[in-house]
Amino acid sequence: MAIVDKRPFWFAGFKRLIEKCWDHHGSCKNVHLSSALDVEKGQWLIRASPVFQEVFGGKDDGKTVWTGFEFNVFKLYREMSVYGETVTSCCTHCTGIPHEKWTGS
Question: Average pLDDT per run of 10 along the chain, which is 105 residues long?
């Protein structure tokens, strides 16, 4: 998979849509988005994740945490034409970060 610095023209609008669908359960109001182009398949892979933050003060001083969230998939579907999707959970023993992979067409 190739990393492409130049994002497609629609990326900024898609980023705003992701942020509209993301409901933070804490003080963090940022979403990390990364993208890569699979040149062979001609498909963009876009990852959205909570931003890691360092706790300042108290018994958890120095810990790295992320704020819980709810992602409104139905709002995303209303804004986009999604004809089919696949959701895959990724093993927490395989990575230190729990995540799901969504594929739509």
Answer: 71 90 83 85 83 86 84 82 59 57 60
